[in-house]
Amino acid sequence: MSLDIKDPAISDAYEDVRNDKSETNWAFFDFADGKPDRLQVAGFGNGGLSEFVEKLKDNVAGWGYLRMNLSNDEYSQRVKFVLVPWCGDQVGVMRKAKLSVQLTEVKKVITSFHVEMPASSTKDLTEDDIMNKLRRAGGANYDRQSSNY
Fold it and tell me: Where, by residue number, does the polypeptide cross the bilayer (predicted)?
């Protein structure tokens, strides 16, 4: 059975994160109660990575979408997007098994992102790790302080 992604609130939340005029910089999508194959918007906010990570639970699986500002210097500010397939450590075996298949459906809504950061622990989602991955994905990097590539 495929994942139901028809709820307009899903694409609205995705577009809100992408909108440069919106303060919303993250959204999290998980499964509706009692409907393990129906995606819903579980939360969104403007507090960045730290607020997003606070919302993640060990017994929840879902997908996060983040807008992050990347800069190598004061002149090169760029907006980048991160897809976070989240599977908490306490998620059941059957749910875990479905996630990789359902990711294909999720990517029909969340179509634009620069990197994918799978995580099962909030320790997997540090700002340094994400920024390093974004820099590597971006090609040329002239930031001398980030030479650990």
Answer: none
